[in-house]
């Protein structure tokens, strides 16, 4: 039986892990959501009584799934009966793959549209609307039971985007492809048309855990609720998140309330809270509490609780001087405050500002390393076999990565088996050993991977070229990676094709992070520097619920910091031809005793 001490979990966490029924856990920032989820999964795994059942955990990203998986294995718990991944992976694995034949659109076979193929296709389809400034970025949409909605907040562009999407859906249907939203749409249709699916799944899952519920979409809630309803209490729910951090509203995410959740799922669910913040100083907590829209209780309880934090807010600075001032703050943090560069994060609301800022910082601090926006040079389609193999080829053997790499080796073996290759004589350990033996001397990332794959599969006597499925995945992976590298080069990211950039994707965070506010979700840093906190950006100018969105974004920015927080609403950013952006209203309205900047 899996056990723990009171040094590992506090009382609230311990109660949530032990509680037998369904729970709805509202967790304040830094309250150990991930730790609680990890222990809960480990506890449930150790209590399973049937070898046919699975503990299912839904995470927001694949990275989070990997992280939690590693932590459970580090607790010494067998994860054979754990299924963990994103809701898309869940729908594919448990609904579309086994039951897709019951859906007329899928019955003749289907492929998943790679994210980069999607980008390429949408870019082509947007070409005729160049004058209307419709780009690939405007084409995000999300499905609900009532139809699809556009993510683009500029209503003036909607009719053009709809025309683009109509053609897009037609092409996908002709090519028998589905994208990520369609995975959800078809999973939900199947769940509705074949009630036995929910019944079967509820028999298999004694518990379903959901992380970051505040960013879950309606259709995802519906799919999960169908399974819970079918189980009538036999499948329990453990849902955790923070409604104050619900910042994916434009993509359909929302923080459900307990009443709606209970009504949808038809099972009793107990509300709970995690209120002790182990991350930030009391002063930081005092600051971000100003943006608390849900009345959540937050108690600073960590080792940095009494840290003398500096919190500044500069709205006099001009855009032209911003990079210099950010460099000054970074230097002061490193040189005077002794903070490591990888504990510093620069955030802004939009990518567009970040590429320019990253370049400006690199020029001013050539000896520092920056993790800029989107700097992963290869296609990250986790379903693609070659992506799975690349993870092993791009990481070195190390004790810290051993468990994770062994799991990845298992996924490569499963991919080979699925392609029709007999791998029964090969264990995960043997496969990993073969990968570890390969030495390739090529500084170009894609050439390195190609040579690596050729060599390792030659050693394994697996002629992958003879297998259609592997070859088409191979073309997808390499074409998408080349396109991605080209796009990043066009954006001025130099050296992006080099092996070092490829390897960095799997290394622990190194250097100063530069990210969007959405991209720092779940992360923590000693120092957070936020800029472009301007009305029209925070919140976005067309956000229907602007005031509340601005508060949530500011809450997320503030709550990432352990020690120091430096904020800017810089002047001089042109808005149209005659105006400039003004500071975020919600920030101006906040009365706080800032330190001098
Ligand atoms: N019981 C505990 N005692 C001491 N430290 C803890 C405890 N629980 C969690 N922590 C620490 O608190 C920090 C925050 O935890 P975690 O990242 O899980 O927070 P979170 O709730 O997911 O935050 P957010 O919602 O802001 O992303 C981590 O450094 C973690 O190790």
Walkthrough of the structure:
The strands form six sheets. The protein has a six-stranded parallel sheet, with helices on both faces. Strands 13-18-17-14-16-15 form a six-stranded parallel sheet, with helices on both faces. The chain has a two-stranded parallel ribbon with strand order 4-7. Helix 1 (11-18) runs parallel beside helix 2 (33-47), helix 8 packs parallel to helix 10 (218-231) and helix 15 (385-393) runs antiparallel to helix 16 (402-418). It has 597 residues and is α/β, with parallel strands linked by helices. It has four domains: 11-96 and 185-274, 3-Layer(aba) Sandwich (Rossmann fold); 111-175, no CATH class; 282-375 and 505-588, P-loop containing nucleotide triphosphate hydrolases (Rossmann fold, 3-Layer(aba) Sandwich), CATH 3.40.50.300; 385-504, no CATH class. The structure holds adenosine-5'-triphosphate.
Q: How is the secondary structure organized here?
A:
Elements (H helix, E strand, L loop, with lengths): L10 H8 L3 E6 L5 H15 L7 E4 L3 H13 L7 E4 L1 H13 L4 H4 L3 E2 L2 H12 L14 E4 L2 E4 L7 H18 L1 E2 L1 H14 L1 H10 L2 E4 L7 H14 L4 E6 L16 H8 L3 E6 L1 E2 L4 H7 L10 E2 L10 E4 L4 H18 L7 E5 L2 H14 L5 E2 L13 H9 L8 H17 L9 H10 L7 H15 L8 H23 L8 H6 L7 E5 L8 E6 L15 H14 L1 E8 L5 E2 L3 E2 L4 H4 L9
Parallel strand pairs: 1-9, 1-10, 2-3, 2-8, 4-7, 8-9, 11-12, 13-18, 14-16, 14-17, 15-16, 17-18
Antiparallel strand pairs: 5-6, 19-20
Helix pairs in contact: 1-2, 2-3, 4-8, 6-7, 8-9, 8-10, 9-10, 12-21, 13-14, 15-16, 16-17
The chain binds adenosine-5'-triphosphate.
Adenosine-5'-triphosphate binds next to helix 2.
């Amino acid at each position: 039986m899996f056990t723990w001490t009171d040094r590992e979990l506090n009382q609230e966490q311990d109660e949530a892990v032990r509680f037998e029924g369904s729970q709805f856990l509202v967790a304040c920032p830094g309250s150990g959501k991930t730790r609680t989820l990890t222990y809960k999964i480990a506890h449930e795994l150790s209590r399973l009584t049937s070898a046919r059942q699975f503990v299912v955990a839904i995470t927001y990203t694949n990275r989070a799934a990997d992280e939690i998986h590693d932590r459970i294995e580090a607790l010494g718990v067998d994860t054979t009966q754990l299924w963990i991944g994103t809701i898309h992976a869940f729908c594919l694995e448990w609904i579309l793959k086994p039951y897709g034949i019951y859906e007329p659109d899928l019955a003749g076979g289907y492929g998943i549209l790679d994210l980069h193929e999607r980008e390429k296709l949408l870019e082509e389809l947007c070409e005729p609307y160049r004058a209307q400034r419709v780009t690939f970025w405007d084409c995000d949409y999300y499905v609900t039971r009532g139809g699809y909605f556009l993510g683009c907040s500029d209503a003036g562009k909607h009719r053009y985007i709809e025309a683009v999407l109509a053609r897009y859906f037609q092409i996908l249907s002709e090519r028998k492809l589905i994208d990520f939203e369609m995975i959800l749409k078809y999973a939900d249709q199947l769940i509705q048309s074949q009630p036995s699916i929910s019944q079967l799944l509820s028999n298999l899952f004694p518990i379903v855990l959901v992380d970051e519920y505040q960013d879950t979409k309606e259709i995802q809630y519906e799919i999960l609720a169908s399974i819970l309803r079918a189980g009538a209490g036999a499948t329990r729910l453990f849902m955790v998140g923070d409604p104050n951090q619900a910042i994916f509203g434009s993509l359909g995410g929302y923080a459900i309330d307990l009443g709606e959740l209970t009504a949808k799922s038809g099972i009793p669910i107990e509300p709970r809270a995690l209120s002790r913040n182990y991350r930030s100083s009391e002063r930081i907590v005092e600051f971000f509490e100003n943006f608390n829209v849900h009345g959540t209780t937050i108690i600073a309880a960590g080792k940095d609780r009494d840290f003398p934090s500096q919190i500044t807010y500069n709205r006099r600075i001009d855009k032209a001087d911003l990079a210099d001032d950010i460099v000054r703050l970074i230097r002061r943090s490193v040189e005077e405050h002794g903070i490591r560069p990888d504990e510093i994060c620069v955030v802004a609301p939009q990518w567009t500002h970040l590429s320019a800022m990253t370049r400006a910082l690199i020029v001013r601090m050539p000896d520092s390393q920056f993790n800029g926006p989107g700097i992963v040079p290869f296609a990250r389609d986790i379903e693609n076999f070659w992506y799975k193999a690349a993870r092993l080829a791009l990481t070195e053997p190390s004790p810290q990565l051993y468990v994770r790499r062994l799991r990845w080796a298992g996924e490569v073996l499963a991919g080979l088996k699925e392609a029709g290759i007999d791998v029964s004589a090969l264990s995960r350990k043997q496969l990993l050993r073969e990968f570890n033996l390969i030495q390739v001397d090529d500084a170009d990332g894609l050439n390195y991977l190609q040579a690596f794959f050729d060599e390792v599969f030659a050693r394994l006597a697996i002629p992958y070229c003879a297998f259609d499925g592997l070859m088409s995945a191979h073309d997808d992976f390499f074409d998408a990676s080349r396109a991605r590298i080209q796009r990043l080069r066009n954006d001025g990211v130099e050296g992006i094709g080099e092996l070092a950039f490829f390897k960095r994707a799997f290394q622990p965070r190194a250097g100063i992070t530069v990210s969007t506010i959405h991209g720092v979700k779940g992360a923590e840093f000693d120092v957070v520097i936020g800029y472009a906190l301007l009305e029209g950006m925070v919140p976005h100018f067309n956000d229907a619920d602007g005031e509340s969105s601005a508060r949530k974004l500011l809450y997320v920015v503030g709550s990432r910091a352990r020690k120091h927080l430096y904020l800017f609403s810089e002047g001089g950013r042109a808005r149209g031809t005659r105006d400039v952006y003004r500071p975020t209203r919600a920030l101006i309205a906040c009365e706080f005793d800032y330190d001098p900047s």
